TrEMBL record:
This is Glutamine synthetase. SUPFAM superfamilies: Glutamine synthetase/guanido kinase. Belongs to the glutamine synthetase family. It comes from Mortierella isabellina (Filamentous fungus). One of its GO terms (biological process) is glutamine biosynthetic process.
Length: 755
């Protein structure tokens, strides 16, 4: 790879013809989103029109957990799905599942089946298209080839994918006008252990629903109110990502192999002018965004918002909230479609949490709440939250989950890539705390202190920005606007934002299944405590009175005060204050993963039935091993780049300087400028070579740690990462000195702007 290749690629990226696609028309106009939405989804509506009514009703009863699908029902659904899919060009079907790789997996099988008939003693083979109920319900991938944390060995290969009946089947369009029927599934071992992300998410959703209903039954008068029969978690997942030119991407081995730049210095202008956020979307990016949304609408993904993010070349796509299980599926689909559509536009999408050092990284903000079967959001405060006792109970249950298991939630967002982002004054630190806002803080304080809520216009509240008031903009032509109940705190890892919590610390690259599973589990455990306290307060009464509920609310207000913080989570003062409160500050993944094995967390996860002891040990092993492997891959990649690209470029530049200085000396022209640069280069090169030797030593040391996964993770965190950063510091120093014509790698300036 030479500097000439870099220059020609930059020129090529600026002269590419834009990609144009024809959006579908109807009656001479572009189709509305509502007319496109879900057309590639085998939805409940499709099922109701294609299945006999008794079969469809049996399926609905199964969804409610009242019965299992029998063979006749499964065969009927499979046949209807096959016919629907083949009408749209499907030739194959696949069980689509979520192994513990932060991605998805699929194995395509054709509908082709050979059917034998015998006529007068002779066999005749006929080719037919079919999808049986048994094929719909389960398939069998090789379980030994996916991460299992020791639960599966090479000689124990059997595993099962099982159709997740609550997640609708859909079509993905393939080459040559064909498509594939996708069957969302869970993935378990031969012995029934969860090998995937979805099984544990479904378990956590069920136990949270059960405990939430238990609490609601205790506080609702059964004679006067509708009994809640189901509670589900709602989730809206904002996806941040970078887009760069794909040709330039191909010249960066670090981006291709690790997802982030291991070498590279900031250009003079990057994000410091704060002009990229919500700025005009580049036309090439807008074209890719628009096509991506079109593909997602067909898949029933409710895309809502698109915009520029803070860093150059960074963007965001946000959906409307859905049931958590569906939202997770849709987020994984969003990442897949973004990847494929960007490729068509000669762009590369980067989901790594920190692809570029020195500018903001990417997160995946998870907006989480709980909703009943009648559509009531249990985290909706209403106009008078101090009177909305169910809201306060569920709010405090969530805070209790953070108070008791904040370190567990920190483990759920830990990874080698997210470590570069968390605590970097662009994302929350490794301290899990909750922001409620001044209004809700005042409500909780007033209940705890047995006093009325202070009036918005009282002298005590003049310095407090509270909701429920009107803002007068002092411009006659502009309307007055209602102020929200809470301000936004962009520094909080877990902020209440009106009628939901925003879990902001989740990494952009990871599946949200695991962090949401841990959150659901912790809240389910807290709700069990709330239910026990309500039972204690109500005594022999049929349900807890208002006085009983207030007593329980006061109890949990006192228990959860330490986890509430209204200030700047990026500040050093908060780090000191959090330590006084006993909140852990977990700065790296190695320390975070160890919290999975702490008895307090492990016992809770086992007690609520989300993880078995074996599954939790497996999860710890997989996460720690992946962390160590990711760091090692980065170390080896950096070593190769420095030895094969950076040092040769610096040596060539140094040689040219030396030859120039020698010639100038020969004619007595003065070579001080060249000699000055040579003197700057020499110590950097010396230190870089020493750094490479140390990096080699640490890579070799990791080879010797084979049996102890914790020791391997510790070595990666304590030895390999510092060695990587040390080498990078000298390589970046060279980039700022070596002549541009010698530098082989596209620089940040080119990567940021060539889209």
């Amino acid at each position: 790879m030479t500097q000439e290749a870099r220059v020609s690629t930059v020129v090529e990226s600026l002269t590419k013809a834009p990609r144009n696609i024809a959006f579908p028309q109807k009656d001479g106009r572009p189709q509305l989103i509502s007319e496109i939405f879900g057309q590639n989804v085998f939805s409940f509506k499709q099922m109701s029109t294609r299945l006999p009514k008794p079969v469809y009703n049996t399926f609905l009863r199964q969804l409610r957990g009242n019965e299992t699908i029998d063979k006749n029902t499964a065969d009927a659904i499979a046949h209807a799905a096959k016919v629907w899919a083949m009408e749209r060009g499907a030739t194959h079907f696949t069980h689509w599942f979520q192994p513990q790789t932060d991605s998805t997996a699929e194995k395509h099988d054709s509908f082709l089946t050979l059917k034998s008939t015998f006529e007068k003693g002779f066999e005749e083979v006929e080719c037919v298209d079919t999808l049986s109920g048994s094929q719909l319900l389960q398939s069998e991938p090789d379980a030994s080839s996916f991460p299992s944390g020791g639960m599966r060995s090479t000689f124990e290969a059997r595993g099962y994918t099982i159709w997740d009946t609550k997640s609708p089947m859909f079509l993905q369009e393939g080459p040559h006008g064909t498509s594939v029927l996708y069957i969302p599934s869970v993935f378990i071992s031969y012995n029934g252990q969860a090998l995937d992300e979805k099984t544990v998410l479904l378990r956590s959703s069920e136990v949270l629903a059960k405990n939430a209903i238990k609490v609601l039954d205790l506080i609702h008068d059964p004679e006067n109110e509708h009994r809640v029969r189901q509670v589900h978690t709602s989730l809206g997942t904002e996806q941040e990502y970078f887009l760069i030119d794909r040709a330039l991407y191909t010249l960066r081995p670090d981006l291709k192999i690790t997802g982030r730049t291991l070498i590279g210095g900031l250009p003079p202008r990057h994000q410091q002018l704060e002009d990229h956020y919500f700025g005009k979307i580049p036309s090439r990016v807008l074209a890719a965004m628009s096509e991506c949304e079109y593909e997602l609408y067909k898949l029933g993904v409710p895309c809502k918002t698109r915009h520029n993010e803070v860093a150059p070349a960074q963007f965001e796509l946000a959906p409307i909230y859905e049931e958590a299980m569906i939202a997770v599926d849709h987020n994984l689909l969003t990442m897949d479609v973004l990847h494929r559509v960007a490729h068509r536009h000669k762009l590369k999408v980067l989901f790594h949490e920190k692809p570029f050092k020195g500018v903001n990284g990417s997160g995946k903000h998870c907006n989480w709440s709980m909703t009943t079967d009648s559509g009531i959001n249990l985290l909706e405060p209403t106009a008078k939250p101090e009177k909305n006792l169910p809201f306060l109970i569920f709010l405090l249950a969530t805070l209790k989950a953070l108070q008791d298991h904040g370190d567990l939630l920190r483990a759920g967002i830990a990874s080698a890539s997210n470590d570069h982002r968390l605590g970097a004054h662009e994302a929350p630190p490794g301290i899990i705390s909750a922001f409620l806002g001044d209004h809700l803080t005042e409500v909780l304080d007033s209940i705890e202190q047995d006093r009325p809520v202070k009036a918005f216009n009282s002298p005590e509240m003049q310095s407090v920005r509270v909701g429920g008031t009107v803002l007068d903009l002092k411009v006659a032509t502009l309307p007055n606007i209602a102020r929200d109940l809470t301000d936004r705190n962009r520094t909080s890892p877990f902020a209440f934002t009106g009628n939901k919590f925003e879990f902001r610390a989740v990494g952009s690259k990871q599946s949200v299944s695991f962090p949401v599973t841990l959150l659901n589990s912790a809240v389910a455990s807290a709700l069990e405590e709330v239910a026990a306290e309500l039972e204690k307060q109500k005594g022999d009464k049929e349900y807890a009175s208002e006085e009983d509920q207030i007593a329980v609310i006061k109890h949990f207000i006192k228990l959860t005060k330490d986890v509430r913080f209204e200030g700047d989570n990026y500040s050093d003062a908060w780090v000191e204050e959090a330590e006084k409160r006993g909140l852990p500050n977990i700065k790296n993944s190695y320390d975070a993963f160890s919290r999975l094995r702490e008895a307090r967390n492990a016992d809770m996860l086992e007690k609520v039935g989300v993880f078995s002891k074996e599954e939790l040990h497996s999860r710890y092993h997989i996460l720690m091993e992946k962390y160590a492997k990711d760091v090692r891959i980065e170390a080896q990649t950096l070593h190769t780049m420095v030895v094969q690209q950076i040092l040769p470029a610096a040596f060539a530049y140094r040689k040219e300087l030396a030859e120039g200085a020698s010639m100038l000396k020969a004619v007595d022209a003065g070579a001080e400028p060249e000699l000055k640069v040579l003197k700057e280069l020499t110590p950097i090169l010396t230190n870089l070579q020493a750094g490479i030797v140390d990096l080699e030593k640490q890579i070799a040391a990791s080879d010797d740690i084979t049996d102890d996964i914790a020791a391997l993770g510790k070595h990666s965190q304590a030895e390999l990462l510092p060695a990587i950063e040390n080498v990078r510091s000298y390589a970046d120093a060279l980039e700022s000195i070596v002549g541009d014509k010698f530098w082989p790698l596209p620089k940040y300036t080119e990567l940021f702007l060539n889209i």
